[in-house]
Amino acid sequence: MRRVSIFGATGSIGQNTIDLIARDPDAYDVVALTGARNVEQLAKDARRLNADVAVTADDTQLDHLRELLAGSGVDAAAGQAALHEAAQRPVDWFMSAIVGAAGLAPSLNALQQGATLALANKESLVCAGSLMLATAQGHNARILPVDSEHSAVFQGLVGEDMDAVERVIITASGGAFRDWPIEKLQDATLAQASSHPNWDMGQRITIDSASMFNKAMELIETKEYFGVAPSRIEVLVHPESMIHALVGFHDGALMAHVGPPDMRHAIGYALHWPERKTLPVERLDLAQIGALTFRAPDTVRWPALRLAREVMERGGLSGAVFNAAKEAALDGFIDGHLKFTAMADVVDAVLTGMDGHGGHIDDKMTLDNVAHVDHLARIAARAEIKKRAG
Ligand code: NAD
Ligand code: MG
User: Which part of the chain is the 1-deoxy-D-xylulose 5-phosphate reductoisomerase N-terminal domain (predicted)?
Assistant: First the structure.
């Protein structure tokens, strides 16, 4: 039996992971499941999968979680210390699917114990790519990508020599506002930004898809995972979301990864790697689909892509600043304090403002320093949001 933990078990990726694991219960020994607010779901899954422990990040929910788990044999725990303790329980496979920078510490804990890390939490690589890779190397741990594009690139590289790679192309659906007139974007509402044409995901990544901040993060993620120079990484708008990424080689060949927009493929690939096992995803009928379309990304419509390029060139802790400013701006938009298009303005202003004396972007990449610039960037972002609201 393989010991597995799922951090962020109640979210979209977490639930898809549980769907796969629950189909073959005898193959897995579930150690820890974690969530935040939705403790009912957490308790239900912890009972069903007979987990050792269920942890909620929200410590006001501990009593409620305990009641829900009474008599089940599953331990209940809450708060940051409990999450930290649970992330250190030995496992073979660890799903990191918390949303946001809060996912970084558990990702590192998983690597420190030498587990295979299935990494959905892209923020871990955006904020602390070199720290993640060094930690993996230092503990003989492996990181397997659970982002559709990066899983696609990873699969396209099997048996290939990185020296033969000329470019990596990640595709983008274009999100909710792909075809909107640019001048209408500033009036986009939360409800409009929260619905994705192709993928069913958590609310934050769905809005990030509409603003292209998700793709911006994925550019940085690509650079960190595969060590590809930024100038060799391209974004291609592909409205159908069937091709997830392409790897281009020196001989002119492009290897495309084609599949339905269903995260259970990338999760399942990481779960069974290096084998391939049958997965419950739709089989594409390309004759039925008929045509796939592509277009160049519009950097006026999506300034997030330009910001990501600046971060890739800047290096240091600029990724952590970028991510924290983006998270704060997203909160501002969700709370109604910021217009949709102003999110990129806030991130731009914070990156510029912190790129100098006292910005700490050139500090050594440690977890503490990442947390420090994250904290400073959120303060700066809130000030920028206030300026724009007032
Ligand atoms: P989600 O919002 O559906 O779920 C997030 C999970 O994190 C929930 O279990 C929630 O309880 C938990 N959580 C939230 N804040 C927390 C905190 N401060 N501390 C501890 N736990 C917290 O998100 P999602 O769509 O499943 O995305 C999860 C991660 O996977 C994100 O990093 C996202 O970018 C990435 N990802 C998601 C998809 C997708 O299809 N949903 C695809 C690729 C990558
Ligand atoms: Mg993706």
Answer: 4-129
